[in-house]
Amino acid sequence: MRRKPSGLPKRQHIELLADALETSRMPSAGGGFDGAVFDSCAARAFPAMRASVRRLAQAAGARIHELRLHDREAQCCGWGGHIQASNPALFDRVVADRVEADPSPYLVYCANCRDTFRAKGKTCSHIIGLVFGLEETGSAPSIREKRENSLSLVSSLLQAFWGESHERPQTAANPMNLQYSPGLQQKMERLLISEEVVVQGIKLAEESSVKTLNRDSGEYTCSYREGTVTYWIQYSQKGTDHFNVHDIYCHRMHILGEAE
Amino acid sequence: METENTADILECCKCHVTLESRRTDFVYLNYNFHVDVPRCPKCGQVYLPKALVEGKMADVEMLLEEK
Predict the structure, then answer these.
(1) Alpha carbon distance A196, A208 (integer Å)
(2) Is A87 in Cβ contact with B10 (below 8 Å)?
(3) How many domains does chain A have?
(4) What ipTM was estimated for this complex?
(5) Is residue A60 in a domain?
(6) Which residues pair with residue A65 across a beta bridge?
């Protein structure tokens, strides 16, 4: 992908969108929205971006008001630091606090804020959806759906603006014929574990034989490290290319002197 | 940290030997720990049981992260 030429001022996409739409005919798709702006904690240091969101919302006809803590005092929605995986009880408390800060719907401009609130049943709209009148209903997307959406966006942008084709990695449609134990996929969602982790972990274990066998149960266990997290996958093989995934658990501690 | 001893039923699929309970060192946020866990006596492959990872290790991580 081409890099942005140096010397151009750094601006957020929301600011550019606000400028572009103000100089064109602004749609009034947001006329039905009446709620509070929930500033992303990442926007604390970006006053122009925060102002652009409000300009966009008002230009689109939305009625907005401020939360008690906003702008430079914006609070994390709960997503930051992946508390969800490391301390679920704290995550629930943080999100509940944010959701209950105002009974009206929230206007957000961060996909993580939107998904976090949606997963807890809070009505919220993303500024992009509000401005363009996109229908935003349903629950938060799963990790796999997020990954698929990201890859689709990359493909579309590369094709539309750079004329490049993008060969998408094999992520979809259960590439290893994985069967999960009941409840395991829900656990993976809660711990923010993607299916790619399972696929890569088992693939590497099968190729390298770096795995352990429980002689009593016939179950294999392998580990797979991605970034700072080590995942342990317990599975069994059924036939030549089917795998039953029994359990997965993870930690952030680093094991010293482990065989690679 | 303590762990259950399941080493005698675990086999390293690379070396085809039974795992043995051996001291293993961990580091997290500049703190060092050690615990006896099943390891391959030949290649050093480690097996961490779920109870240890989701129990004591998770407790220690949360404590250090102050989350």
Answers:
(1) 18
(2) no
(3) 2
(4) 0.92
(5) yes
(6) A36
